[in-house]
Amino acid sequence: MIIDFSKIQEEALxxxxxxxxxxxxxxxxxxxxxxxxxxLKPGAxxxxxxxxxNSEIVYIxxxxxxxxxxxxxxxxxxxxxxxxxxxxSHAMFNDGDADVVYFAIVPEHH
Length: 110
Prior knowledge:
Layout: E1 11-14, E2 22-29, E3 33-40, E4 49-50, E5 56-62, E6 65-69, E7 72-76, E8 81-84, E9 89-94, E10 100-107
Antiparallel strand pairs: 1-2, 2-3, 3-10, 4-9, 5-8, 5-10, 6-7, 6-9
């Protein structure tokens, strides 16, 4: 199956999961996975949250920033992959002056 993100309407989300600023996203969702192509605006963040029934893999296409991952901080740039396993927590922060463009997959584990 090919997922063509250009055919999926982009949504602007504000304060995603309790974070700050704007996240623009195109999502494909079925009962087992969420597949997302997203842009986190400069200065924006996702809220700190725990993956209780799923995990998340985030591939950074462009931009720079950091993740708060459990009790640590991890910096990222283009080509970085962040993995948040089930039972762990994270938040994403755009530290730059350009959008952070990323591709993410959230597989459900129930």
